[in-house]
Amino acid sequence: MRALPPRRPCAVVLTSVVALALVAGTGPSAGAAPAASHASSAGRAAPADATTVVAVAGAGQSFGGPATLTTAAGTSLLSYYRQGPGVARALELQRQVGTGTWAPVALSQGGLDTFGVPALVEDAATGRVLLTASAQASADVAGTLGTYLWWSADQGVTWSAPVRVWNSFGVGDAAPDGAGGFWTTVGETDALIAHVPADYSMQATPSGATRLTDKLGSRGATGLVTAGPARTPVLGFFTTAGIYAHRGATYDPALDTQVFGAGSLGTLLGVAGDTTGAALATSHTPSYAASGTTALWVRGFDPTTGAVGAEHRLSTGQALFFQLRSLPSAGGLAAIWRDNGDSDLYVARASGGADGTWSTSRVIDDEADAVSYYSHLDVSAGWAVGLGNRDSDSTAVVWAAEASPQTIDPTLASKGRAAYSSKKGTLTIRSTVNTPGRLKAVATITAPGRRPTRVTKSVRAKGFGTYTTRVRLPKAARALLRSVPKARIRLTVTFASSAGTVKVRPNVRA
User: Where is the signal peptide (predicted)?
Assistant: First the structure.
C-alpha cells in the first residue's frame, strides 16, 4: 500500500435516514434504506488522488479482468488480460510498492494464448502470492485447456512458469486451504470444486471434481473462498430462489444456507472470507420489492454453523459493477461499487466482519476524473481498480485509484419535525446522517417566568440503518407543557464523527 502523506478529510455526502429517540434505542433494522438522494457536484470535494491509468489499449485492443491484491507486506499487484490485433490474449501483471509507480512485471505465457479473468490471492501458509486463470493454447486446446497457476515467493518480483493444476474447463479462482494447497471452481455448470494440493500437482476431470449441491444446474454468478479457523470452503451461488452459500467440501444439500432471498440479481455476486468468517454481497430492492432501488447489500455467514447475520445496505443508489473482498491479515472487509445515481465509485470498509461498522468513502468523482464507463471493479487494501475509457479519445484503459481509508465529513439534516406525545410524555426526533458517529439531542423546555428544564440524550449511529429511540421528559417538564399555554420545547441535535461536528435545530410538533 502507498505511504500516504497527512491529508485533510475528504467530504462525501451519503445520506441515510436515522430515526432517533433518545432513551431506549434499537439498533439498525434489517432492510433499513439510506435516502436515495445525492448532493450536487458543486458541493462535493474532488477525489483525494487522480485516477492512475495503468495500461492503455492499442488500436482495436481491449482488456479483461482486472484483479488486484495488496499483500500483508504492502505490495500491490494488478493483473488483467489484453486482447485484439497483435495479440490473441496475453496475461499481463503490474506491481507497485510504497510510493512508487505501477511497473510491468515479466510473466511467462508458457505457450498459452487465451486467458480468462485472472485472480490474485496471498497464501498465508506459504507466504506465496498466487495468480490463477483459466487458459489454453489455441493450437492444442484439448491438450492445454485448464486452470493455470503462477506463484511468487518474493512479493511479485519474479514468478514461476504457468503450472497446469486442472485439465479442463474452470473458473480460474483459488481459495487457499491453510496448508499450502487451494480449492478452485471447475466445470462449466453445476456446483463443482477441485482441491489442488500443496505440490500443485494437476487434478483431472471428472474424478478430481466434487459436486456440492443439487441446487445449481446451469451456472449463474458464483464465488469461492475459504473461511473460519479451519479454512472451510464456502461456495456462494445464485439460483432463481435466491443467493445460497454451501459450506464444506462434501455433497450435502443440507449444508446449503439461503443468504439472500428471491429477487436478488444473479449477474454479480461478491463472496469474501478470512479466518474470522465469510460474507456475501448482492444487489436487490429493499425487502425484495417488485420495484425500487437495486442497492448493494452485504451479509455475514458462519462457515461452521451456517448462521447468517443481518443484511446491511451499503449503497445509496443503484449499485453497478460491485465486488466484495477480504483484506489481508484479518483486516476486515472491503466492498466497491459504481453508484448509478451519480456514476461515482465508492469503497466501504468494515472491521469485525459484515456486522461491524461500515465506513464509506468516494474514491472516484466521475465528473472530475479523466476516465469514464467504469466496469469490472476490484478492490484491495491499497487500490480500487477496473476497466474504463479515456475521456480524451475513448481508448480502453485499465485504471487504479487509491482506496485507502478516508475520513468522511459528517452531514446532518432533520427528517421532518420532531414529535412530542403529551399522553406518553415522550419526544421522538428523526435525523439524517451519513457516517458512523454519535447523535446527541438537547431538549430545552421553556415557559414565561419559569426556569428552563434541559434534557440531554445521545445514541451511537453505526452508519446506514434506521434507529428508533425515545426521550421521556421529566414529570415537571410534562406538567409545565400541559398547564402553561406558552410553554415550548426547543430542540438541538448534534452529530459528531471523527471528522467533525454538525448541528441542526428541528421544529417540534405536538
Answer: 1-32
- State whether 255 and 313 are in the same domain: yes
- 370 & 435 share domain: no
Q: What is the mean pLDDT of residues 81-100?
A: 90
CATH code of residue 468:
2.60.40
- Residue 116 shares a structural domain with residue 260: yes
What's the distance, CA 170 to chain centroid?
Answer: 25
To 10 degrees, the CA torsion angle through 6, 11, 16, 22?
Answer: 70
182 vs 392: CA distance, rounded Å? 43
Q: How big is the CA angle at 149 (ends 143 and 155), to the nearest 5 degrees?
A: 155
Torsion of CA 183, 188, 190, 192, to 10 degrees: -20
Asked whether residue 210 is assigned to any structural domain, the reply reads no
Distance from the Cα of residue 328 to its chain's centroid: 15
Cell of 363: 474514491
How would you class 452 by CB atoms within 10 Å of its CB: exposed for 0-12, middle for 13-18, buried for 19 or more?
A: exposed
Cell numbers for 350 = 468494515
User: Is beta strand 453-461 parallel, antiparallel or unpaired with respect to 471-472?
Assistant: unpaired
Cβ count within 10 A of residue 148:
26
| CA angle centred on 498, ends 456 and 384, rounded to 5° | 140
CA distance 187 to 181: 19
- Determine the residue type at 78: L
* Cα three-residue angle 119-252-277, rounded to 5 degrees: 50
Would you say 401 and 52 are in contact if contact means Cβ atoms under 8 Å apart? yes
**Separation of alpha carbons 347 and 477, rounded Å:** 46
Residues 131 and 79 sit within 8 Å (Cβ to Cβ): yes
Are 333 and 313 a contacting pair, CB within 8 Å?
Answer: no
Number of domains in the chain: 2
What is the chain's length?
510
177 grid coordinates: 486451504
My answer on whether omega of the bond before 206 falls inside 30° of 0, hence cis, is yes
> Dihedral, CA atoms, 376, 380, 383, 387, nearest 10 degrees?
-10
- Domain extent for 88: 62-198+215-375
Higher confidence at residue 368 or residue 381? 381
What CATH number does residue 371 fall under?
2.120.10
Cα angle for residues 490, 433, 407 (degrees, 5° grid) = 125
Same domain for 365 and 418, yes or no, is no
Cell numbers representing residue 79 in the block:
493483473
Cell of 392: 480524451
Q: What is the pLDDT of residues 97-144, one digit of tens each?
A: 877 889 999 999 999 999 999 999 999 999 999 999 999 999 999 999
Give tens-digit pLDDT for 256-277. Answer: 999 999 989 888 899 999 999 9
Residues 273 and 334 in one domain: yes
Going by the DSSP 8-state scheme, the letter that residue 458 receives in this structure is E
Q: What pLDDT does 468 receive?
A: 63
The verdict on residue 313 lying in a domain is: yes
